[in-house]
Amino acid sequence: MIDVTDLEFKGSGKPLNGELKMPGDKSISHRAVIFGAIAHGVTTVEGFLRGNDCISTLQCMRALGVQIDESGDHLTINGQGFDGLSEPNRVLDVGNSGTTIRLLSGLLSALPFYSVLAGDVSIHRRPMGRVIRPLMEMGADLWGRSGDSYAPISIKGRKLHPIDYHLPVASAQVKSALILAGLQTEGKTTLTEPGASRDHTERMLRAFGGTIRTEGLVHELVGPQYLTGTDIRVPGDFSSAAFFIAAALLTPDSHLVLRSVGMNPTRTGMIVVLEKMGAKVSLVNKKEWNGEPVCDIVIDHAQLRAAEIGGALIPQLIDEIPILALIATEAEGTTVIRDASELKVKETNRIRTTVDELKRIGADIEETEDGMIIHGHPGRRFSGGPADSSGDHRIGMMLAVASQKSDAPVVVRQAEAIAVSFPTFRDQLAQIQR
Ligand SMILES: O=C(O)C1=C[C@@H](OP(=O)(O)O)[C@@H](O)[C@H](O)C1
Ligand SMILES: C=C(OP(=O)(O)O)C(=O)O
User: Fold this and answer.
1) Which of these three, 189, 214, 233, is where a domain ends?
2) Is 394 annotated as a binding residue?
3) Are 350 and 395 contacting, i.e. CB atoms less than 8 angstroms apart?
4) Mean pLDDT of 230-243
5) Which of 86, 137, 382, 395 has its CA 20 to 30 A from that of 5?
6) Ligand 1, atom 12: closest residue by C-alpha
């Protein structure tokens, strides 16, 4: 039985004011657990995201024999190197997490035992050929459903050989899977991306004493590598902060401060777009944690104008497109989002779910082949009413924020999905609505 929860979100009608600490970055939390496990010695992680996706990674690493102690958002990982991982005696459950299944496919392909990766209904619909094919080129023995295209993925790990591979899509998950395989492979692995995807794996690898050379879109690493445990501090998740930035931009006279948010430039394309739209975003108190830029974000409500969003910027704001679409409903003019076909293979087809659900509550928005067109009407309120996250956390939170400009409350169906990346979302939204 799937537990389905309807949650009602209601804008308070008042300006949003206050200071918030965002939950830990999801991409960095996954990688901290995986690298802590394959390194030698103790790794501590401060600010680990206790969202369902990262918990899936944590449980998978435990099932592979790694000892991980938890105390709130603090982890202590007792890493024993790649050799310390052992054959799991059950299917590894990745839940709803694309990052978990793809990164672990690369890791497990080079380890000398049998393993199976499976997850929920959404994960079994997402393309896995993009990791299976290049891993097979490295000599891996792995299989997927429908001609090696979908999960479950079963793997008979073995010694691999390096490849020189051109990724067909700008995907950090594919790049990271191949890095995790390459780290265990003798010789030079070369990966060329068609566009720059998030580089958390490269930064984390260096924090653990590993080496990867990046020039433009080409990454080179020589294996095998020996990694050493370290202390990781996880910044707040920019993708979670995006929902609060949007809430402030939709609500006149709002002023929010979001503390210690990760500002990795491969993640913050949304800031570039918002500045073009006329938003007032200040980045203050800049620092660096384990090679990741971090700062506080100060956001004030401002009148916005429409923007064109496409090209190389898309991978840098891919997870923020649903919330950018909502922001664009409040901007003067027509916003066009293009080159975003990758959205069709996320937890849902996010082009369709964003357009259908925003339309349902009152937005003027159209679907296109590779994106969407949003007709902005500043000050025009939505009707609100029922809307469906379709089991997609980012759609659920976008709809909840839309309640800020809706007459009736927005009732989000399958709102439990929000806990995938932001379990404290509802409470923190309520905190600034008071
Ligand atoms: O590597 C990661 O942590 C992620 C990479 C992106 O996916 P792709 O690699 O499929 O673009 C992103 O959408 C996802 O939320 C997290
Ligand atoms: C696409 C996402 O995650 P994943 O691919 O890890 O499921 C996301 O968090 O928006």
Assistant:
1) 233
2) yes
3) yes
4) 98
5) 382
6) 319
pLDDT digit string, tens, across residues 376-428: 999 999 999 999 999 999 999 999 999 999 999 999 999 999 999 999 999 99
Give the Å distance between the CA of 100 and the centre of ligand 2: 9
CATH of the domain at 189: 3.65.10.10
Residue nearest to atom 1 of ligand 2 (CA): 346
Q: How many Å lie between the centroid of ligand 2 and the Cα of residue 98?
A: 6
- Domain shared by 64 and 166, yes or no: yes
Q: Which atom of ligand 2 is nearest to the CA of 27?
A: 6
* Residue 64 falls inside a structural domain: yes
- Residue-number span of the structural domain to which 57 is assigned: 26-233
End-to-end Cα spacing for the chain: 35
* 39 within some domain: yes
Q: Is the CB of 173 under 6 A from ligand 1?
A: yes
240 and 157 within one domain? no
- Active-site residue set: 319
Distance of CA 126 to the CA centre of its chain: 15
Average pLDDT over residues 81-103: 98
Query: Is 26 within any annotated ligand binding site?
Result: yes
In terms of domains, do 322 and 343 share one?
yes
Residue 35 within a domain: yes
Nearest-CA residue for ligand 1 atom 13 is 319
